[in-house]
Amino acid sequence: MKLQKVIQRLQKLHKKKIDLSLDRTFNLLKKLGNPQDKLKNVISVVGTNSKYSMIKSFQSILNQAGYKCNLYTSPHLQSYTERYVYDDKEIDEDNLADLLEDIEKINGSDNLSEFEALTCAYLKYCEQYKDNVTFIEAGLFHRMDSTNVFKNNLCSLLGSVSIDHLSWLENKSIDGIIHEKTTKLLTSKVFINKQENKETTLKIKDALKGNKSEKYFYGDDFNYLTAENNFIQYEDAKGSIILPEPNILGEHQLANISTAIMAARNIFNIKDEHIKKAVTQIDLKGRLQEIKAGKLKTIAGNNRLVCDGGHNFAAGAALSKWMNTLDQDINLIVGMMGDKQHKEFMSNFKGKIKSLNLIDIPNQEGSISKEEFKLKIQDDFPN
């Protein structure tokens, strides 16, 4: 209850939930003593899709090699505490509430968006764990996002880039999105994940021409191969590794895992056995996550229950590809935010599902009602 109340107060500090600017963030960070400058091992993570999966894959590898990690990710599934991970452990609600209250007092009446407050709070608390490897996931794009506050980092991970959040852009195209995500990447090392198509990869290469960092592209500098009987082979200039089958679902995750492996091998003291063990112990929630216990599983009974937070066309395509591997009926339950490309996302599932149930998202500002959702997709899903 205390955490909820302080979050509600923070939400009232700025009339817009999202306002792309760095002035307010730097103003508060200065009051806090610029904690971002004290973190020693920052990894910036940017992209439309795959950011969280890359982070969790990378964390698993580092943990096996004895490194400790801090993670700042968003959004959360159930609690704001999920966004705040230090020493590989999620903060508890009381500590987070106290932290945010401290930030609230220091900020005073200055204008500040909710995400800016959350980011500054994370960075201040992170001072206590400054020697750990700290993963910082961009919130919206990157160029004017409040996570873009570092003078240097170990590297940047660039996930798959695709169409999403167009309402925030003047240039409402993949070119505009690539510009926002790449133009302010630091000049350390950049590891670029597999993209939807060659055209996107070429556009990213062009956008990064002026960036003096060492760049490593999926397909050029690292890759994975698959064959029958779950054979998976990872390859880069340091050599190949035969990988065990990962504990997470979906072939698209192999590219995310591969990007994490490439970065880990190039920056840290990582052995092949660390990687092999890590890919079987990735703690990934809300990404093709099979629910095996709890209230929802009780309702589902003997049916297999899998949840996924994908919400754009590319994420839907990855989900659809995974569905193609199943030899079972698929009953799809979907709720979405109102600013998404609903028709495009749902087009991935036309002719592939037995039933569709659209739902409202309770207590979620900005979500689309099931009635409006149905009208948008009725041409493809008339029943």
Model description:
The chain has 2 domains: 2-278, Mur-like, catalytic domain (UDP-N-acetylmuramoyl-L-alanine:D-glutamate ligase), CATH 3.40.1190.10; 289-377, Protein-Tyrosine Phosphatase, Chain A (Alpha-Beta Complex), CATH 3.90.190. Helix 3 packs across helix 8, helix 3 crosses helix 9 and helix 6 crosses helix 7 (198-207). The protein has 383 residues and is α/β, with parallel strands linked by helices. A hairpin with a 3-residue loop joins strand 9 (222-227) and strand 10. It has helices at residues 2-11, 23-31, 51-64, 93-107, 114-126, 174-182, 198-207, 252-267, 272-278, 295-300, 313-323, 342-346, 370-377; strands at 41-46, 69-72, 84-86, 89-90, 133-137, 155-158, 189-192, 214-217, 222-227, 231-236, 239-243, 289-290, 306-307, 331-334, 355-358. An 8-stranded mixed beta sheet has the order 4-3-2-5-1-6-7-8, with helices on both faces. The protein has a 3-stranded antiparallel beta sheet with strand order 9-10-11.
- Radius of gyration (CA) equals 21 Å
Strand order of the largest sheet: 4-3-2-5-1-6-7-8
H-E string: HHEHEEEHHEEHEHEEEEHHEHEHEHEH
CATH superfamily of the largest domain: Mur-like, catalytic domain
Q: Treating each run of at least 4 consecutive H or I residues as one helix, how many helices?
A: 13
- What is the fold named in CATH at topology level of the largest domain? UDP-N-acetylmuramoyl-L-alanine:D-glutamate ligase
Residue share in β-strands: 15-25%
- The second-level CATH architecture of the largest domain is 3-Layer(aba) Sandwich
Distance between the termini: 42 Å
* Portion of residues within helices: 25-40%
Biggest sheet features? 8 strands, mixed
Mean pLDDT, as a whole number? 94
The level 1 CATH classification of the largest domain is Alpha Beta
Number of domains: 2
**Low-confidence parts lasting 5 or more residues at pLDDT below 50?**
none
Structural class: alpha/beta
Overall outline: globular
User: How many strands?
Assistant: 15
